[in-house]
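Lecture 7 notes: from sequence to structure.
We start with the chain below.
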Amino acid sequence: MPRAPGRIDIGGDRAISEALAEALLAAAHDDVVAESLTHPVHTYPARLHPATARALVEVVSERMPDGTALLDPFCGSGTTLVEARALGVVAVGVDLNPLAVRLARVKTWTPPVPRRRNAKDAGLRIAAEVLMSGKEARRAGFSAAPMRAPEGFDPNARQRRIGKWFAPHVRRELEAIATAIDDVRHDDPEVAEVLTIALSAVLYKVSSRKSDTDPTWVERHVPRGAAARWFGERVSMIVAGIQDLAVGRMPPTVVHEADARTLGTLGLPRIGAVVTSPPYPGTYDYADQHRLRFDFLGIRHRAFDEGELGTRRGFASNSLEAARRWKESQIAWLDALAGVMVPGAWAAFVIGDSMAGVRPMYADDDLRAALDDRLAVVAWASQQRPILGALERTAFGERGKREHVIVVERRPDPRP
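Predicted structure tokens for the same chain:
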């Protein structure tokens, strides 16, 4: 979402479109929501801004029939799901990214107080034990434990992929933390997932990878014990966010690891509202960005590699073919979405224009073209991106590059 406000154009229902414009502006004006609840526990590139998600959940949930749930079919790190839970709205998420699914589940995990305490105690205990082990490693005669060998991963291939990214002492600390988490997983898989996300959150910080989105190798001097200390701090942060989110009694948030084009096969509840931000074509490669995490943590990701929609790598190889596949996939997931929504339900889509190779992709045009007769536009708001590169200015011309929020309504099925 653009942090520098640009001109906003609106259309459709006046009251709704004005609310959508406010949702777009929330990203630039918010200094509180993004750092609240469980939002800050783990980085996630290009996530939907929490303040925008909150505003849109409020807009669409007002029309939800009783006994229905809000759906995010591209839930990513769970931003919309967290905001729905905070507002007392039952929600369900879907994503094909296995790391995103784990992250969304942890960020919406609201167990009883003793279970939260168990998670924090386990994390702090592991951090303390690894710190102590690090001190012992400096003594003569110390013998380091063997590296982990996650099931299903060839240890030699894994070493080739991740070995260069960590200093030896950092790698030992990380492997010791991961081994301890594996031990917890035998008795308490839910707590182990919390600890895994805490480890994932600090993984790039102690690596030589420049950032989530930039795989450049950089020299990084990480002090001994830093990985363990930061892991313990992150566990405490997660549990504190869960504590803030766990207000009132609600059923658990369910997050499915699945392709959005298969919504009809997932056994979802009746869907009375949707808030989602689908992929921007040609912009990101989440499978590549998370590959180091996948390899270190032992997360299988073949289905995600093959099924990720609108990837930059796909457009780089053949932009015309990738654009064709993108439009087909958009028709498919919108068809699946319409199939699970109840008549009268509203769906809010946060989408953005993008560059696919050297071709401009107008997100609002593509979405409207993919809608079938069951989904009708109610209102929209589009915000200009004020800062563009030279290639973008040339490609998008006077129309400009924009971020959009479009609300559509599920029409009743035609009578037989």
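Points to note: The first strand starts at residue 8 and ends at 12. The longest helix spans residues 113-136.
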